[in-house]
Amino acid sequence: MKNSRYSDSQIINILKQAEAGTPVPELCREHGMSSASFYKWRSKYGGMDASLMTRMKELEAENNRLKKMYADVQLQNDVIKEAMAKKW
Length: 88
Hints:
Blueprint: H1 8-19, H2 24-31, H3 35-45, H4 50-87
Helix pairs in contact: 1-3
């Protein structure tokens, strides 16, 4: 996954500026980002503070790690089943 140019705290600050009443096009121009990025962040991180955002990213990383572990176990299981079928 591509890394963001913006840190979690920067994203939170940009969203707080928008909540304070700064127009979105002005924010986008000031920070050099697209309005699509802003609206994506708002839908994903709206109402969060920095600690919640950090916790969410930790959970996403753990979830990805667990998915990879599950895929590896399933692959091993398939190989074992195939070997057992050939044996009989």
